[in-house]
């Protein structure tokens, strides 16, 4: 009798739990569970959104019911174990299901949109696409960076069409699982001046929302959004074009952190402009921005920071000039491997840059130190044009375009100390000055 009463109590408890889950599942869940038909005929559905380190994507009320049951009780009733997505740090976990369409569809690009409509294609910390026995594809993404302050978040998906143009496919809105309240940083007023010895770096403005495809114009929906950080650079009291950013980090008071992997820049008469993407969302009261600045070829170097190797023979396209010279600069062992033709191969190592290049290896650089190729000139005194650079902790390669009739080159390498500066500022949003204007101004 006692066992029967216990059984009835368990069943009653499960019914109550099921009712609670039903009410929660059919409450304010945004677009969770809503299918969208894409242009290739496939259907994509947002299955679940969660925050934490252990995400158990659920497909419908039944799986949500199983998810809330104690593990032993779920096993007792024969419910299947649910799959999970685990991350080392807390993340925003998103799971979707795609059904139908071509067997190998293009990669889905995803960006997160805040309540004000600002879109940022922040990278996902974790991504996995899994085929199910029924032929559907389960799409799991985890984001460490997302707009945390608003009540809702939008997930916008796109793919690349003809000429690499972005084609928007679908958008889902869901409740923000960590909407706050959050503390707020107090921004400093522009210009914000930082000094390090003889170098002064004044951040004069930060403007976000520019279009990467239309110079100087605010981004339209579908454009890649860029941010500009504008500096006034002075060294020994005079304008300097001899410094450039080597690393860019952003954070906000809600816990977001974003490290940039690529950017473009320009310098003229001491005015330095840095352009990059993606960025954080500008509805934050302030961003904390940390920059590493390193000297360029136009910078001033001390003699002990420089090493010049003269008269290196330029190889033909199928060979290399193996130099194998070493020196010590600022406590770092620098080894010049040699020059490589477009299709040349070294005997004991591979080049760091494809095509014709200058190749260097080095010992571990101390924190805050950088290795740079300052200058490459040919035997006629002409500057040799760079095609870009590739580096790792121990290897550095510079792609080169050798001038016509050049026979040898002189190479100058430097090991030098970077300067680090940090600012807490409120970003502004680009806005067109008037209809038809080719310029964008601050909001």
Write the layout of secondary structure elements.
Blueprint lengths: L1 H24 L9 E3 L5 E13 L5 H8 L2 H6 L8 E15 L9 E5 L5 E2 L5 E6 L5 E7 L8 E9 L5 E10 L16 E5 L2 E13 L13 E11 L2 E2 L3 E9 L5 E3 L3 E6 L2 E6 L10 E9 L10 E8 L6 E10 L2 E9 L16 E6 L6 E10 L6 E7 L3 E7 L6 E10 L1 E7 L2 E5 L7 E3 L1
Parallel strand pairs: 11-28
Antiparallel strand pairs: 1-2, 2-3, 3-7, 4-5, 4-8, 6-7, 8-9, 10-11, 11-12, 12-13, 12-17, 14-15, 14-18, 16-17, 18-27, 19-26, 20-21, 21-22, 22-25, 23-26, 24-25, 28-29
Helix pairs in contact: 1-2
Summarize the structure in short:
By secondary structure, this protein is mostly beta strands.
Query: What best-fitting shape do the alpha-carbon axes yield?
Result: globular
Q: What's the end-to-end separation, in Å?
A: 74 Å
Structural class: mainly beta
Number of domains: 3
Question: What is the architecture of the largest domain at the second tier of CATH?
Answer: Sandwich
CATH class membership of the largest domain: Mainly Beta
Mean pLDDT comes to 86
Task: Assign a percent range to the helix content.
Answer: under 10%
Strand elements, count: 29
Could you state the oligomeric state of the chains shown? Answer: single chain
Radius of gyration, in Å, reads: 28 Å
